[in-house]
């Protein structure tokens, strides 16, 4: 059965600001890929995808994780691929980390979905809509609250 996990971001957590959130996304991508998962980071648009890719290049060389944007790099070489709405992963990926605010029609192609419930009210409502879509698609749902981490 497919699973969807929503990480609930609390206003007092480090992930509540853009820098902390970006670091947390990188942490999750590295964590899942180190366990052998083929991870797809689904961004809102090309600009966000390029920003996330740049963040991977800015980390300490000892912690570097191979990654590529969709259409760049070798087709089977990295466990982390970064794309955006309207493009497809280069090849089969098991897990998607969704950073886009809507359009979860991609989700049925992945066994595992990671999504987020931000602090801001409009973004929270969009997350609720995605939650409903995953539930209707038959995903087993769970939530994890992020606090003071």
Automatic annotation (TrEMBL):
<dbReference type="GO" id="GO:0006260">
    <property type="term" value="P:DNA replication"/>
</dbReference>
<dbReference type="InterPro" id="IPR036768">
    <property type="entry name" value="PolIII_chi_sf"/>
</dbReference>
<dbReference type="GO" id="GO:0032298">
    <property type="term" value="P:positive regulation of DNA-templated DNA replication initiation"/>
</dbReference>
<dbReference type="GO" id="GO:0003887">
    <property type="term" value="F:DNA-directed DNA polymerase activity"/>
</dbReference>
<dbReference type="GO" id="GO:0003677">
    <property type="term" value="F:DNA binding"/>
</dbReference>
<dbReference type="InterPro" id="IPR007459">
    <property type="entry name" value="DNA_pol3_chi"/>
</dbReference>
<protein>
    <submittedName>
        <fullName>DNA polymerase III subunit chi</fullName>
    </submittedName>
</protein>
<dbReference type="Pfam" id="PF04364">
    <property type="entry name" value="DNA_pol3_chi"/>
</dbReference>
